[in-house]
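Input set for joint prediction.
Command: fold jointly, output tokens.
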Amino acid sequence: MNLPVIIKFIIDLVAVLLLALGIKGLSKVKSARDANRLAAFAMLLSVIGLLSYYLGTSGIALQSWIWIIIGSIIGSLFGAVIAKKVPMTSMPETVALFNGCGGMSSLLVALGVAFFPISNNLDNFDFLKKLINEFSISVSIFVGAITFTGSIVAMSKLQGWLSTPGWTQSKVRHFVNIVFAVTSLIAFFSLINGNTSSIWLLVIFSSLLGIGVTLPIGGADMPVVISLLNSYSGIAAAAAGFVVDSQLLIVAGAMVGAAGLILTQVMCKGMNRSLISVLFGGSLSAQSTASSESGEYTNITSCSVEECALTLEAASKVIIVPGYGLAVAQAQHTLREVTKKLEQNGIEVVYAIHPVAGRMPGHMNVLLAEADVPYEQLKEMDVVNPDFPATDVVLVLGANDVVNPQAKNDSSSPLYGMPVLDVQDARTVFVIKRGMSAGYSGIKNDLFDLPNTSMVFGDAKKVLNDLIGELKDLGVGEK
Amino acid sequence: MSFISLLWVLLLGSLLGLELIGKVPPTLHTPLMSGANAISGITMLAALTLIVKAEGNVPLLIIGSVSLAFALFNVVGGFFVTDRMLAMFSRKPSNKK
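tokens >
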């Protein structure tokens, strides 16, 4: 072993260690920010390690430097600008976009190596080595293409640029996707057999497969898909690591791949959906309209903002249940103003966060943190559930399925078994909602029929603004 | 590097990933996903290798460069956006009087 090899080996080892520590640190609130920077530093270190290795061995041509600099500047610049500009509410789309580009990168590397075999790989190529090379190229193309098109479709759907076409909800799509998958696999094996011309077939049909699988999936399930695609991009990176013979790539790719799978599992559990049903079941609402739309509301009480304000003023403990609707209305800042007033009046305010509130697990925490809600006021479901019976008022803002008591009481309900917030145990529940439409699941919410529940109809932001006005009139928060 | 030892690396890396993510509070799921996503941009190393080994082959240089741009878009954007999210959590204690 000569010096450059040893140096690269040590740098790679340190980089892997720091990456692992980074991922680990990201799992604790206190250390998360430093951990993220540590991981970023590890990535920089890995680049330095690679470049110094080539400088010490083969050298790097001027032409290569030029292309490296061009690619780096363009990629970093766009990445930084988008990361700075994007609003916090569109975080899931942004992650999907970045993720898709990671997949694209692996795909391009594999294509490059497939068309222009790089020197090292063919120096001493025996049959096995060639086979492994072809196999990793094929995996990298297949997974990379699915990651790219899947992520772009996911992003477009979350942005509202793409809707769910009707035919994708019928059985036709399974047939179409099977055709895509089988054709991809044929191309895959033909490529491994050394038939280079099937490479475009593989690119095209794995891209189509990515679209075909993601397009039918409904908005509520999209975070699960993004998390899964995130895992794929790790696998694509690991495959690219086999292509260029880099252990560091393989370790990092495998870590991301495995971590992504775990996260996906966690999300599925939170939504009471199996991964299989997310991927192949289509949107839940389309399925369940036939079976459970039967429930009519019989005992709806609606009330004015004024009544709501009066009840809040008299309360001593209030729990806020924020949901997706709050994020859509961008009302988190207005909500914070309301709770500030209540707190100034000595009322205890707590936010109950369901594991899948918002659009991704933890998304709601980010949104509320953006609105300056103290971290200590955010309570997780298991912590807050025993508190509901001792609570005077619960404000449900844009949440629906996560507060449906059916999930506990009605074993025939599709929601049955999903963990929910027991808001019905509180003295009074106000549900702020635009209308009587059902949640994502398309299922009637029994909570709305309960005698202690009152509906306040209207846009979350407008209702909260009115509420601030009413509270002001009552002298709340102005000591 | 023999293929077998690379397979070992793959296996151990996967196990490490499973172990690291085991217990995470839901608050951090989105930042974690975003951070892990940034790390998956590590394919930039493969793109760099491609460019360095291109030996004046212009199409390969271009493919490598575009691939590098995509990967860095993922890495830089991913880490920045994660930092933005996490900044909101860490800002809290100082903001409270």
